[in-house]
Amino acid sequence: MKRGKIRKSFSMLAASTLVISAVAPVPIVVKADTQQAITVAQAIANNSGIATVQGYIIGFITSNGNAVTQDPSIVKDTNLAIADNLNETDVSKMLFVEIPNKNNWRQSFGLETNPTNIGKKIEVAGNLKAYFSKPGLRDTSAIHFTDGSGTPSQPEAPVVISIADARTLPNGDTVTVQGRVTAKLRNTIAIQDETGGISVRPTSLNVQEGELVTVTGKLNTYQNLLQLDSASVVSKDTAQIFIPAPKVITGSQVGEAYESQLVEVENIILKNGTNGNYQATDANNNTFIVRDENNSLGLLEDINYVSIIGIVQQFANDYQIIPRSVEDVTVDPTILLPPVATPAGGTFIKGTTVTLTSTTVGADILYTLDGLDPIENGSTYASPIEITEDTTLKAVVKAVDDIYSDVITMDYKIVDALRIHEIQGASHTSPYSNQVVEGVEGIVTSTYEVTGATYYTIQTPDELADNDPHTSEGIVLYSGRNKWPIEVGDLVSVTGRVSEYAIEGYTDRQTTDLLTTQINVRDDQGGNVAVLEKNVALPAPIILDDTNIPTGVIDSDHLTVFNPETDAIDFWESLESMRVQVSNVKAVGPQANGDLTTVLESRATNTKHGGVLLEKDSKNADIIQFRLEPNSVARQFDVATGDKFEGNIVGVVGYSYQNYKIYAPLADMQAAHVKGSVKPEITHIVKDMKKLTVGSYNLENFSNNKSKTSDEKAQKLARAFVQDLNSPDIVGVTEVQDNNGDTNNGIAAANESYERLINEIVKAGGVEYKYANINPINNMDGGAPGANIRVGVLYNPERVTLADITPGDATTAVGYENGNLTVNPGRIDPQNDAFKSSRKPLAAQFDFNDEQVIVIVNHWNSKNGDDALYGSKQPVVNKSEVQRKNIATIVEGFIHEVKTKNPDANIVAVGDFNDFQFADSMQILEQRHMTNMINKLPEEDRYSYVYQGNSQVLDHILVSNNLANHTEIDAIHINADFTDMAGRASDHDPILAQIDIKPAVVDPNPNPDNGGGNPDDGGNTDGNNPGGSDNTGGNNSGGGNNSGGGNAGGGTTTPEIKPEETPENPETSQPEEQEKPAPFVPTDLPANHWAAGYMQQMIERGLLRGNENGEVKPNANVTRAQFASILARALSLQADGNAPFSDVGNYAAATQAEIAAVFEAGIVKGADGKYMPSGEITRAQLALMLYRAYEHATGEKYVPQGSATFTDVGKYNEETLAAITMLQELGIASGDQGKFMPTAQATRAHAAKMVIEFLEIIENR
């Protein structure tokens, strides 16, 4: 049978795909030691333990785990979906099976190699656990068809070899060794036998120092240190527990011969301590490094150490000794040092004992517990001191010759038990930040994951709460990638370090956002979580209602006073990580990113659809935000403004993306949801053919690239033009991209984009518009690189005529002479620095009923960079407004030039001004000649955008004052209050005006003192021209005019600017990607894009953010800085220092930190001290970074089973070839026609695919 004829069709979503169902089968208990094969249904019901499962092969699991396919062009040899029913189409009834790359199983069972295996019945054994986040079978140990074919031979029992022999074997070999545990360090366990030592990972193995253990693992080298990775304990001999005596060596012998062994070096002096690393010199001037990996040894420089004991390890090119504790460090007893108190001061449980030690032989320690001088009043220390109350301990060492050391002072605060409310404190910052706390008890109330790291929330039992409304009883536990075996309802005792951290948000969140108090319970960093009791009743939720939720202000005192009674920002902080209950709320915005914005049902709303208006002096402090879990599913929840939620909703207060939110179950919100009656509108303006209709519409990144702008979106926009706006005569459009969207090919033409929209409007029964447009210079107007976003005009040639004037170009400034624009259309002062990385306003002159009208289309710079309402910087500063005020001054100056020369000029300014009607920038634009018609709307209608629950105006139509009394205005609410599922085509609502253009009345006796202005203008017309420009200089490469035809869409066009070589993007002080404030919904990622699933997962994991226009640019190439950021976020990397690159200094601090983090992790290297952050990475470079990331994430270097079969990779070095081979063997990259195309630039879509598949492999190892 040929492969092309085995393809089945399933109609659940699309051909050959199956949609995951959320329905789970009835649980069936399966014992882990079951030998007889069980059914797929049983395996799904209890997806844990070791089992053998029988089922029919249905197909291949796609990389996002949401579908199963039999498409031969998609299937690989890496996995299978099996089911009990041969013809199963419900993916929820399928088990996802991993096919490891061993025993030729992929060659025998994989569907790419063996497409005829579909429908065959197999029996497979392995570990039942999640695969692609669905019920699965991993770590496959046996697989065969039920007729017996394909049965692998059973593995042989492991053979124990000496550590010395193991050290001679190549990386990737699995070995079994026996040795005695000499140390449990921060990142490794050290074991040694008579022949040598070796480092073992993970550190979570259940072994103790002194035990004789047998372990099996895979040899791997990390930073030149040989390790036994992914080790498991075969057996332990605890009959005799002892640690071998350290081997005494010299500093010159600290090297490979003693790697991972316990040694002692004598007579050492330390210098230059940096990040825990000290340069050590012995008596013979041999140098090496002593590392204090936990900063707990109290090492001092320039004093003599009699000896230092520790484990020898190599890191990169340096050998180091890592002491296990202070007992491994012996100071010269002739040096009189202060005593050491263990533990140091802090908050402790009553009965804590403090030990005092001295390095001076024969000396006494004197101490006091009342703060008095121990030299005069001290008691001699003889045994550990029990602390039972708040105590100030002072201590000093008294040598035999009555010489005293310096005095130490330690303050101990004693509590019966350290409680969460004491850690939280009545503040936005914990008083215990950066301190280790122990014995903290709480009930687990929730758990969630962010970019692969696990978080829990715990809360004090009700009977132990302090009942202080200023302090929270909840706190977050950060567990890293190693989960603790705890669940909701467990009472736990916690040990770990307290920190303040912004868990989820934009890349600069650590400096812009409020931080969440958390306890680091990572087991590899000294944390611990112990279950005290299971199935404990959860603490009662705090009831939130109109008696306690602040309604006035978010912050009243710049965060200087903690007053949750009045300030919303303090109110939510006082509830951080606590369970709360809200009853009967209503949505004041649509669902976005799985989040909801609501207010109490009793709260009066003031928009026509049930929202709340953002006002100059009111930011609606009483908005209640929800984050729904599971969040990815919640993004399909169709909630509109005005919908209600009846009954009680319980969740846990958290913070993400610059807002406090109640983290609540999606299922609970769905059960409470009551759909409202709000529907998208049509304009109320009755069209009068004697009047001019002018609209404004932000098209949200519209192009002719159908992979970015779907046909559905184009049809929705067209329908709005025809049905909702009633075919306006002129429409100023914003966010029009060039023909190919964000494909960065240097060509900025948008004729096809306009023509596509025009054709769709015609199909929808509308008029055949023409367009006026000026192509920008490539990548000079902001937005996604390569997209060349711009403003333009659509006009109905049956109603208006574009004045026959030579069109302008990208750099020529439009002026006004002799009653006409100097170019038409023309850009207003386009080379002014005020328009840097922003759209240049477009002025177009039309004739309507023998009257002249000038329409100015605007899209001012975004609000990116403004402080968040619930951010760490109070009061809020809108930094982006500075540029908008400069733009407003220029546009207003141009209008003043026109009105000075022609007081009767009819001017209409439309567009997305990215500012509110009360903002200074809009006041500047209105100050002399213009009236903002938005202010004429009824208050309930005065919005065009909804952001974080605040209905606000960003889109405006202004008319010259002589038209104000003859203009009707309407905001047509068809998008801002609705989700995509409800027909939303853009994130902005269109605005429409109908204007009665009256002939100007000529005054036969004009006032000679008013500078030629019309007294009816209503403004100060002093006859001067402070802001306009008639500069026609610059590069006029456009030339020519094609007026009224010449292309399929009609209209006036400017010849395309000849593509030129553009320099590499300059380095800036901002991240490479301009980020769009939440809510973030990709604007250029249609559902049918081949990488949509991957890109969405990147977004959900926080690895990918949109630019200021919400674009994720799947087809744009990835730069080295961008991919470094992605890997740093994906692997939760943090830098200890700065990267040694001279060319990253102008990047944002967050980007620099991420580059430093991947450098320190050994993932990137750079050359000649440079990183070349703006360089676009090739597919080979991407493979190499993932190869090194694999080693960092797993602790073991990937060892290829063979060599890549691609025909075009032979010239690469061994490491790069291994990296490409890894991608092929793991099924991440398959190439095209036998080629890997290593020198091709990697697009964001391809990078997303590789990263997501890579992370899934790492997370499911």
Q: Any key phrases for this structure?
A:
single chain; 1261 residues; alpha+beta; OB fold (Dihydrolipoamide Acetyltransferase, E2P); seven-stranded mixed beta sheet; six-stranded mixed beta sheet; 20 helices; 58 strands; disordered N terminus; GH29D-like_dom; Endo/exonuclease/phosphatase; signal
Structure overview:
The protein is of the alpha+beta class and 1261 residues long. It folds into 8 domains: 3-145, OB fold (Dihydrolipoamide Acetyltransferase, E2P) (Beta Barrel); 157-244, Bacterial OB-fold (OB fold (Dihydrolipoamide Acetyltransferase, E2P), Beta Barrel), CATH 2.40.50.200; 245-332, OB fold (Dihydrolipoamide Acetyltransferase, E2P); 340-415, Immunoglobulin-like; 420-533, OB fold (Dihydrolipoamide Acetyltransferase, E2P) (Beta Barrel), CATH 2.40.50.140; 542-674, Beta Barrel (OB fold (Dihydrolipoamide Acetyltransferase, E2P)), CATH 2.40.50; 692-1001, 4-Layer Sandwich (Deoxyribonuclease I, Chain A), CATH 3.60.10; 1092-1259, no CATH class. 14% of the residues lie in helices and 28% in strands. Strands 46, 49, 50, 51, 52, 53 and 56 form a 7-stranded mixed sheet that branches. The chain has a 6-stranded mixed sheet with strand order 44-45-43-42-58-57, covered by helices on one side. It is globular, with a radius of gyration of 35 Å.
